[in-house]
């Protein structure tokens, strides 16, 4: 029997539409179920409760970060809150950060430079756990698929290689 994993895909919204779509296609092509909150705009505590339930129901958590910190609730971005919640709940996680060279050529309109300090602190937080770096949407989708496939090949008793047990 094939196992289907529910994988929570987290990212900021407007800047990563194509990248998120590529990751979701990769997850679907592997026969798993992608979920995430990109389909609606985060705005209040009720939505935060909904997000937490979706993370609780997920087997793995994938975070995609480029040059935006994102929408905030009580001084923290939703992506940071989601990541922190997934870690606290013991959901295996992996963060995919835009790599240095690609950051230099990232479109200015996709950035959020007024929140650059918050973004840099957040990137450092991810780097304390398992992190992988990506250059473009295809590279990102391939790396996410590889992390998932490693588990599909028969690993048991723990999270797939490429995901950090928390």
Description:
The structure is a single chain. The protein is of the alpha/beta class and 166 residues long. It has one domain (6-152): 3-Layer(aba) Sandwich (Rossmann fold), CATH 3.40.50. It has six helices and seven strands, in the order βαβαβββαβααβα. It has helices spanning 17-29, 45-56, 78-88, 100-105, 116-126, 137-152; strands at 6-10, 33-35, 60-65, 72-73, 76-77, 93-98, 131-134. It has a five-stranded parallel beta sheet with strand order 2-1-3-6-7, with helices on both faces. The protein has a two-stranded antiparallel ribbon with strand order 4-5. It is globular. It starts with 5 loop residues before the first strand and ends in a 14-residue tail after the last helix. The model is unreliable at 154-161 (pLDDT under 50).
Sheet with most strands: 5 strands, parallel
Radius of gyration (CA) equals: 15 Å
Highest-level CATH class: Alpha Beta
**Which of globular, elongated, flat, extended, rod-shaped describes the shape?**
globular
**How helical, in percent, are the residues?**
40-55%
Could you say which structural class the secondary elements and strand pairing correspond to? Answer: alpha/beta
Rounded average pLDDT: 85
Low-confidence stretches: 154-161
Stated plainly, the CATH topology is called Rossmann fold
N-to-C CA distance: 27 Å
CATH homologous superfamily identity: Toll/interleukin-1 receptor homology (TIR) domain
Strand content: 15-25%
CATH architecture group name = 3-Layer(aba) Sandwich
Number of strands: 7
Order of helices and strands: EHEHEEEHEHHEH
Number of DSSP helices?
6
Which sequence of strands runs across the widest sheet?
Answer: 2-1-3-6-7
Our count of domains comes out at 1
Protein name: DUF4062 domain-containing protein
Pfam families: DUF4062
InterPro entries: DUF4062
Domain DUF4062: 6-86
């Amino acid at each position: 029997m094939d196992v289907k994993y529910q994988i929570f895909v987290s990212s900021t919204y407007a800047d990563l539409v194509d990248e998120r779509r590529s990751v979701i296609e990769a997850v679907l092509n592997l026969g798993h179920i992608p979920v995430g909150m990109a389909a609606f705009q985060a705005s209040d505590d009720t939505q935060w409760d909904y997000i937490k339930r979706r993370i609780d129901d997920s087997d793995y958590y994938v975070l995609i970060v480029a040059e935006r910190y994102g929408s905030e609730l009580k001084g923290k971005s939703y992506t940071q809150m989601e990541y922190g919640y997934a870690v606290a709940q013991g959901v295996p996680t992996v963060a995919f950060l835009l790599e240095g060279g690609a950051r230099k050529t990232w479109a200015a309109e996709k950035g959020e430079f007024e929140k650059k300090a918050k973004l840099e602190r957040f990137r450092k937080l991810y780097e304390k756990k398992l992190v992988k770096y990506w250059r473009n949407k295809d590279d990102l989708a391939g790396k996410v698929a590889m992390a998932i496939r490693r588990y599909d090949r028969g690993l048991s008793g723990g999270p797939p290689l490429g995901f950090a047990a928390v």
